């Protein structure tokens, strides 16, 4: 669903008196050693998301009074997500400037009640044998927005991670510095958690209640689902969810299934997703909104032109005649064998299943949608043709089954740019010779389709066909 705290990047600004070592800190982060020759100012650098602990790209900006004027300083202060005020621990004047110039100037630009965290960074600690903490504490008590590392940072990367953390995990919503107390909202949230866990309402958490709170079974029981949606008018899904996403043997939704279900809701009804996110309290801060929960990617036609996509969710239409094994194929995708499917309540079956799988080491979601064909002359509607990949399925044990999918391919997909995979189901049964001009393998070869995929849900379910479909969708 998006980076933590809804942010797509973090911008760190380094301020301080000339000579305190701002530029050296930035350059040493890049080169992993302190430079001998230091320019007046370092160019802005970007740390890619994949090398940061929080997986959020980070921009680091240096300010130099020697090269930049006050207008540039004001602009950078307004653009920053977090400001590091650097001082030299061996230079009292740079410490005095924190309160005589830098902090008042920042407040003047952002306002006294601004929410931009400020991190005090003591540099050149190797030049002294004492801690600057006693000098800094009075400043910390005076300015609530200040952050100061609780321990001595042992390397440069820790400093920038701490600054990033001040933005992504701010303490302001949880803790009031002036009173050294939790905020009222934090107390309310903790009280609610306590009450949820206090099953017998005796205002004491027993060992049993504590263990239930942290059962770590990786699933949501019906009670846990009910508690989760206690702030919503209704639960976001019904009993059919057990046949849509992965669950455990009790029918409880797993973490993998939970994420898949929200992905399905986002794909089918984004307005409904936004409604539930609001009820659950997602992004209620003034400067953020629920749109950070979704990512809008480029148009599909551009993906087809470039033969690759940045999307992680793909729609697959599973099309074939009745009795071809489509429902079995779809239930197999969420791990249900033929034997497990025998006990399914047919009233709780839906035309959708969704699950995640790996495509070249990357997690992708494949959303399967079942489309029934009732006769040779049946037509497909535009919504049934709109997808990322098509799975044409026939019963390999029935001699007339392949003709349906062959006709469908020639009518709708022979000139289409949508990738098509033909799957023969019930591969555990004797394979029938198809009553059609070409046998399935020859048909696939003639029309330059991927090799025919065989599928069976009897016993261990192979994932080859699902991975092939997801790969074809991701790399059309």
From TrEMBL:
<dbReference type="GO" id="GO:0003924">
    <property type="term" value="F:GTPase activity"/>
</dbReference>
<dbReference type="GO" id="GO:0035099">
    <property type="term" value="P:hemocyte migration"/>
</dbReference>
<dbReference type="Pfam" id="PF08355">
    <property type="entry name" value="EF_assoc_1"/>
</dbReference>
<feature type="domain" description="Miro">
    <location>
        <begin position="311"/>
        <end position="475"/>
    </location>
</feature>
<feature type="domain" description="Miro">
    <location>
        <begin position="7"/>
        <end position="169"/>
    </location>
</feature>
<dbReference type="InterPro" id="IPR001806">
    <property type="entry name" value="Small_GTPase"/>
</dbReference>
<dbReference type="GO" id="GO:0007264">
    <property type="term" value="P:small GTPase-mediated signal transduction"/>
</dbReference>
<dbReference type="Pfam" id="PF00071">
    <property type="entry name" value="Ras"/>
</dbReference>
<dbReference type="GO" id="GO:0035006">
    <property type="term" value="P:melanization defense response"/>
</dbReference>
<dbReference type="InterPro" id="IPR011992">
    <property type="entry name" value="EF-hand-dom_pair"/>
</dbReference>
<dbReference type="InterPro" id="IPR020860">
    <property type="entry name" value="MIRO_dom"/>
</dbReference>
<keyword id="KW-0547">Nucleotide-binding</keyword>
<dbReference type="GO" id="GO:0022412">
    <property type="term" value="P:cellular process involved in reproduction in multicellular organism"/>
</dbReference>
<dbReference type="InterPro" id="IPR027417">
    <property type="entry name" value="P-loop_NTPase"/>
</dbReference>
<dbReference type="InterPro" id="IPR003578">
    <property type="entry name" value="Small_GTPase_Rho"/>
</dbReference>
<keyword id="KW-0342">GTP-binding</keyword>
<dbReference type="InterPro" id="IPR013566">
    <property type="entry name" value="EF_hand_assoc_1"/>
</dbReference>
<dbReference type="GO" id="GO:0003006">
    <property type="term" value="P:developmental process involved in reproduction"/>
</dbReference>
<protein>
    <submittedName>
        <fullName>Mitochondrial Rho GTPase 1-A like protein</fullName>
    </submittedName>
</protein>
<dbReference type="GO" id="GO:0001667">
    <property type="term" value="P:ameboidal-type cell migration"/>
</dbReference>
<dbReference type="GO" id="GO:0005525">
    <property type="term" value="F:GTP binding"/>
</dbReference>
